[in-house]
Amino acid sequence: MLKKTTLAACAALMTVSFMAPAAFANDDGEIKYRKSVMKSVGGHMGALTGIMKSETVNTAHLQLHADSIATLSTIAGDLFPEGSDMGADTTVLPVVWEKPDDFAKAMKQFQDAAAGMSAATKTGDMAQTGAAMGKLGEACKNCHENFREKKEEMKK
């Protein structure tokens, strides 16, 4: 009986959490969430790079990391709500909100490149996968160069 009651309580809490996320959201939480998701993207990118450079024997994980980045890319554009830059400890440049069309294009480039990487890894053709990895790297670089503080600036 206790087990069923506990499960029911957890299910109810999860339902409330998913139905009314704005009631629980706060600025610090949004920034932490964004940083966590983007750190995950970076982790998967680092793993892909290691596999592609033959720095690891874990080549069977290539598809998993490519699929994970493709999935995360679909929510990346949602991570920058208007005003989430105000007074926050973040490296996001104001241009994200000043030029939303440019940022949307960059997000689309990232999503397309991530989907392309996922599709390429499914072919088993390493030349195609390598080309797709290059496009994914270009998409990441585009955002980092145009919408994020440069590392030198971040240290100041």
Mean pLDDT: 84
Measured distance between first and last alpha carbons: 58 Å
Series of H and E elements: HHHHHHHH
- What proportion of the residues form beta strands (DSSP E)? under 5%
Q: Major β-sheet, in short?
A: none
Low-confidence stretches: 5-24
Oligomer: single chain
Helix/sheet category: mainly alpha
Protein architecture, described:
This protein has helices spanning 2-19, 21-24, 27-52, 62-76, 95-98, 100-123, 126-147, 151-155. Helix content is 76%, strand content 0%. It is mostly helical. The chain is elongated, with a radius of gyration of 19 Å. Helix 3 (27-52) packs antiparallel against helix 4, helix 4 runs antiparallel to helix 6 and helix 6 (100-123) runs antiparallel to helix 7. Residues 5-24 have low confidence and may be disordered. The protein contains 8 helices and no strands.
